[in-house]
Amino acid sequence: MIDSVQITAKDGKTYTAYPLTQAQRLMYFVYNTYSRELAMLNIGTGCYWQGDFDEALLCEAIGEARDRCDTMRLRFKPDLKFGLVQFLSEEPLPPVETVDLSDRTTAEADGLLEAETRVGTPLEDNALSFVKIVRMPEDRNGFYCKLHHLAFDGYAAKLFMADVMAIYLSKRGCGSYPKPMKPYLEAMTQELEYLNSDRRKADRAYWMQRFSTESEPIFNDYLLDNRLEKARRESGDDSQRYVLMFEGEHPVSKQLYYEVSAQDTEKVLAMCEQRGLSVPCVLMLGLRTALSSFNRAQPDVSFKFMINRRGTLLEKKSGGNRWHFYTLRTIVDPSLTFAEAARLVEDEQNEVFRHCAFDTLEMYHIKHMAMHMDRLEQTYDSMSFSYHAPLEIPFESEEVKKTARGVWYHNGYSAQNLYLTVKNRLNDNGLEFIFEYRVSEEAAAHDLAVFYDRLIRAVMLGAEDPDRAIGEILARIEPQEA
Amino acid sequence: MELTDVIDVILEYVEPDCEIDADALLKQDCGLTSFDTTCAVGEMCDRWGVDADALDLRAVRTVGELFDALKRAKA
Fold first, then answer.
1. Which of A144, A160, A190 is the last residue of a domain?
2. Does a structural domain hold residue A9?
3. CB atoms within 10 A of CB A464
4. Which residues from A are below 8 Å from B40, CB to CB?
């Protein structure tokens, strides 16, 4: 039995409304604590391609995909008992508009859509997610989605886009109609049922046990002017292992974008395939190696990683936001080979997976208690990482796919100091690294260029020879003395 | 616990293009991600009373190998 309340919505109807899930509460908490900018909750994304384009059919496809996606109708309302509650509104969705930007340059068109992504929508009982058909320059056409982070995460957004395209293609006679989506309320109910389950008690016991027996982690910085060393100088305590990193007040952020060529990406993927290694774990190994190299070859490295908790088909196909963030801590001896270290990262990742249904906020509370930390901003994790697993968006042909542009528009704000997202490009599957950093960190742009260089060199050195020792990779990615 | 039970659980997680049998590779043929595998194996252990800590999945690549590993851990 899960909690619910009856509410009367703007349309005059009475709805059953439910508390936020743990993932939604996390998102709402970081918005409230570190940003208070509504646009921070926007996801802006577009999918455009060249070639034959049937606007009427795409409009029909978007309409049907919206009808199949419950969270398009998800709304929120303040509630005295639960703070904020959610319900599926029966109010009709607005018609699908067309915007013609074909007389602009691509940069101008992207700028306009990014500006739209930076406009927040008040939460209370409003439609929060929108889709538009867009005619772009260079004979590209497609659609833009402005989705809400309490109703979608990156995976759900891409799932919706893939559904639009699959429906559109089936209407054009290129493929079968996609299988049905799954009901959001059923997945949400499972999430809320977990709160009173034995499984939650077992997960809680696991994190209590783990943090009470684990040694204290250590902060590893991505800035060259190391904040732990600075904190130690200020406190006079050379054994200090955490820093105070306040992430409130200045939520304005920028992005740094780096591309890996399709050929180099293929080298990484081929090595993973050949050695049975996980691609995200190899990327996380590259990340931890760069952090280690920025911190005097520190073997003990922690960062937060996003877990998109979508296992069952119900979880995969019901939309919503299921992101939890957990710390990935690994201690890698430099004598380990790249392949051995990647397996160590994978083992730790899988260990966290087993207990990641547990509330992120509560897990960090338990960790703070165990480490005798009494302030929210005390941390061992300098940054967060997420890998958006490839989710195929279908196109009419390989030729059309090569012309496709998938764009993620920056909403302008970030709830944390540094968030690295890695994705695969739509047209050639090459990797893209997007560093979203707060502009209040002046050194970030310069230092992140150095950081990325070390990260990607570590990954490529590992891909070239997975039996190469981590110690050798660390030596090779650091600047050589003259 | 039969092989078909293992396949039934896997089909709660993925919609593969091909038929799944004992020789199907968990990753390439079934399309299971690391997260899927962790959750599906946890579900199997809960359903059939298998001690997850006794389960060695290091060398497991196929559905049949997973079934054998579960049987060994249950024994």
1. A190
2. no
3. 12
4. 311
The larger pLDDT score, comparing residue A38 to residue A34, is at A38
Q: Is residue A8 part of a domain?
A: no
Tell me how many domains chain A contains.
2
pLDDT tens-digit series, residues A246-255: 766 678 899 9
Interface ipTM > 0.85: yes
A-B C-beta contacts closer than 8 Å:
34
- Which pLDDT score is estimated for A248? 62
Task: Collect all residues with Cβ–Cβ distance below 8 Å to B8 and sequence separation of at least 6.
Answer: none
Nearest CA in chain B to A309: B35
CATH code for the domain of B45:
1.10.1200.10
Mean pLDDT of B26-54: 91
Residues 6+ apart with CB under 8 A from B13: A311, A312, A313, B32, B36, B39, B40
Side chain identity at A74, as an amino acid letter? L
Would the pLDDT of B58 be above 80? no
Residue A445 has pLDDT above 90, yes or no: no
Contact A23/A191 with Cβ under 8 angstroms? yes
As for how many domains chain B has, the answer is: 1
Residue at a domain's end among A190, A221, A242: A190
Q: What is the Cα Rg of chain B in Å?
A: 11
Asked which of A27-36, A37-46, A47-56, A125-134 is least confident by mean pLDDT, the reply is: A27-36
Residues above pLDDT 90, as percent of chain A: 89
* CA–CA dist A435, A422 (Å, integer): 9
Which residues in chain A (284-313) have CB-CB distances under 8 A to chain B?
307-313
Give pTM, 2 decimals: 0.94
Section A9-33 average pLDDT: 95
d(CA B17, CA A175): 14
Compare all CA atoms of chain B with the CA of A280 and give the residue at the minimum distance. B34
- A204 and A108, same structural domain? no
- Please state, in angstroms and as integers, the Cα–Cα distance from residue A179 to each residue in A65, A138, A193, A317, B40, following that order: 11, 33, 27, 10, 22
Mutate to test the interface with A, among B11, B38, B51, B61 (most CBs of A within 10 A): B38
Degrees, nearest 5: CA angle A296-A300-A303: 100
Interface of A with B in 324-353 (CB under 8 A): 346, 349-350, 353
A5 within some domain: no
